[in-house]
Every structure is written in structure tokens, then in C-alpha cells.
Design a protein that fits this description.
Rossmann fold; N-(1-d-carboxylethyl)-l-norvaline Dehydrogenase, domain 2; eight-stranded mixed β-sheet; 8 strands; binds nicotinamide-adenine-dinucleotide
């Protein structure tokens, strides 16, 4: 295969729909979204395209054009699968479901069709384990909201060929994404390892009574969080110098959280029914209005950051 052209997304949930929206941005691609039981819900995609239109990022004509270029199919896996160059599975985060889907698709798709998994935390190598052609399986970890966060972690398994890595990266770039090359299939890939190192420390600070939950978030929002999109850790370390980085780590690392189990505070909160947005209380208190505001503010912020609008 020279280039990926025919893309099939399996699973029309939150991520599958948004990944379909992403690939519709480039007329190079024929995009199909497949769902197992019912017709995929096109309204979700249209609503998100309309939000981009309302912000002046795309035109009314582009919304129509992009919707017309997404093909929705269910439940049979027909011609679209036979002609697929790239399958991206976005089905439930259940190992067996993903393994069985790829094993089944080997009987339908061409031998050179790439099988990509959008798993958040599972090993793509393990997901490939029931396949004959393990070299075609690759991780493509999109972030939520899939149409606004540019990053896609492209994860090489023990068997993925370099050709599959490059074809996948090229397709994602043409779809307007920022793919990064993850050389090893490790839990958390690249970005979630860093994100959860920060969450572990944030929760530990609350647990130790060093600061209350809102203060912890404020400390991020009004300091390094502000500059992170411009100055990320590695460049920052070079900026202050590796000697200073060494000296700071030499002093402070022994005091930082290094627990290998979830915090007991999280377990206590779960036992007390403090489930976050879902129950109206987590670390902070929530009602319908503040939940809607949190979601809206995030989308608007991301649109501003990504599109400058
Ligand atoms: N939600 C996120 O923030 C996020 C971010 C990155 C990656 N992911 C990953 O993307 C994948 C999909 O997540 P989502 O949030 O879109 O989930 P979702 O629950 O919104 O959608 C899952 C879809 O899979 C389908 N499905 C479930 N079981 C199936 C089966 N046995 N066979 C075929 N289809 C089946 C469902 O019908 C649904 O369309 C998961 O692997 C998830 O871990 C999620």
C-alpha cells in the first residue's frame, strides 16, 4: 500500500464518532463508521461540526461536505471492510472484545490492511495476540475530545513493522493530527504516564493536608500549567540547565509520592459515594450548572488554543 485512503472506524461511541469527524477533514479519505447494532448517531458529529462553524472555523458548505463524506454502516461488515486500508477500532475497553474483533477482521480485510487500536490503557501487543498478521497491528491513542486534541500516540508493538508505523503516521498527519512515535508498548504510553504522575502527586498533596483540592488545581492553572503548551518539561530542563535539574531532583524526589497503588483517599471517597460529576461531589462539589460550564469552558478553551478562535 502506498498511502492510506479507505478508513473504517469500528464502534460509534464517543471516540469513534469524533475520529470519523477528524478523517472527514481531508478529501483524501473515504471514511466509514461501523457500529454493531444500530445506525451510528450522525447528530453528534454534526453538532460538533456546527460548533466549529459557529466559531468561524469551517463554513456551512464544509459541514455539509464533511457529513456527506462519512459513510455509516451497521451491522454487516461489507465492501468497506474488504477495501479498507486502515481500521481503527474504538469498541469497548475489553481485551477479549478487541482481540476477537481483529481476529475476525483478518478473515474479511486485505492482508496489508492496518489494524489500529484506540485503547487507552491496554497493550496493543496483547490485543494483536489472536491475529495471524501481528505486524499490521498498531496503537493509535486519540485523546478526548478526539476532534480537538491534536495528539495521537502511535504505539509500536513488538511486531509492528516500520512501514505500518509510517503509513499510520502519514494518514494521521493528513487528517490534521499531531501523531507521536511511541517506540515501546508500555502501560500509559507516553502522555498518560506523565499525566498520572501529576495526578498522583496532586492527590497526595490533598491527602497530606498540604493544600485543599481547589488550591492544588489553582497552583497548576496559574503557574506551570499556563506555560506548559509552550515550554514542556524537557525543553524547560534545558532552559534552567541540567545541573539545576539534577540538584532539584537530588533534593526533592525523595519527598514526592511514589505509591504503586491508588491513593487510599480515592477508595474512601468511592466508599462515601463521592464519585465526581456523576454524584455531584468528588474532590469538589458539582451541580448541573457547574458541570455544564466545566465541559463548555473546556471545549471553548481548546478551540481557542487549537484554532485561535
Ligand atoms: N472516552 C475517552 O476519553 C477515551 C479516550 C481515548 C481512548 N478511549 C478508548 O476508545 C475506545 C472507545 O471508547 P468510547 O469512550 O468511545 O466508548 P463508548 O462506550 O462511547 O463507545 C464504545 C462503542 O463500542 C461498541 N461496542 C461495545 N462492545 C462491542 C462489541 N463487543 N463489538 C463491537 N462493538 C462494540 C458500542 O456499541 C459503542 O459504539 C475504548 O477502548 C476507550 O478506552 C476512550
Amino acid at each position: 500500500m502506498e498511502k492510506v485512503k479507505n478508513v473504517v472506524i469500528c464502534g460509534a461511541g464517543m471516540m469513534g464518532n469524533m475520529i470519523g469527524l477528524v478523517f472527514s477533514s481531508c478529501p483524501d479519505f473515504n471514511v466509514t463508521i461501523w457500529n454493531r447494532r444500530e445506525k451510528p448517531c450522525l447528530e453528534v458529529i454534526e453538532d460538533n461540526l456546527n460548533q466549529l462553524k459557529d466559531k468561524g472555523i469551517i463554513t456551512e458548505a464544509e459541514v455539509k461536505d464533511r457529513m456527506s463524506r462519512i459513510n455509516f454502516v451497521f451491522p454487516d461488515k461489507g465492501e468497506e471492510f474488504k477495501n479498507a486500508d486502515l481500521i481503527i477500532e474504538c469498541v469497548a475497553e475489553v481485551m477479549e472484545t478487541k482481540q476477537d474483533l481483529f481476529a475476525e477482521l483478518e478473515g474479511i480485510c486485505r492482508d496489508d490492511c492496518i489494524f489500529a487500536t484506540n485503547t487507552s490503557v491496554m497493550s496493543p501487543t496483547e490485543i494483536a495476540s489472536k491475529c495471524q498478521h501481528k505486524e499490521r497491528v498498531v496503537g493509535t491513542h486519540f485523546w478526548n475530545p478526539g476532534h480537538l486534541i491534536p495528539l495521537v500516540e502511535v504505539v509500536k508493538t513488538a511486531d509492528t513493522t516500520e512501514e505500518v508505523m509510517q503509513l499510520t503516521i502519514d494518514a494521521l498527519e493528513r487528517a490534521g493530527k499531531k501523531p507521536i512515535y511511541c517506540k515501546k508498548d508500555v502501560p500509559g504510553f507516553v502522555a498518560n504516564r506523565m499525566q498520572h504522575a501529576l495526578w498522583r502527586e496532586a492527590i497526595s498533596i490533598v491527602e497530606q493536608g498540604i493544600a485543599d483540592p481547589k488550591t492544588v488545581d489553582d497552583a497548576v492553572k496559574y503557574s506551570f500549567g499556563l506555560r506548559l503548551p509552550q515550554l514542556a518539561p524537557i525543553e524547560n530542563s534545558d532552559m534552567v540547565g541540567t545541573q539545576l535539574t539534577y540538584n532539584i531532583h537530588n533534593y526533592v524526589l525523595k519527598y514526592l509520592a511514589d505509591n504503586h497503588e491508588p491513593s487510599p483517599l480515592l477508595q474512601q471517597m468511592i466508599d462515601e459515594g463521592k464519585m465526581g460529576f456523576a454524584s455531584g461531589e468528588g474532590f469538589l462539589k458539582w451541580d448541573d450548572e457547574s458541570i455544564a460550564k466545566s465541559k463548555k469552558d473546556l471545549n471553548e478553551y481548546l478551540i481557542k488554543m487549537v484554532y485561535g478562535k
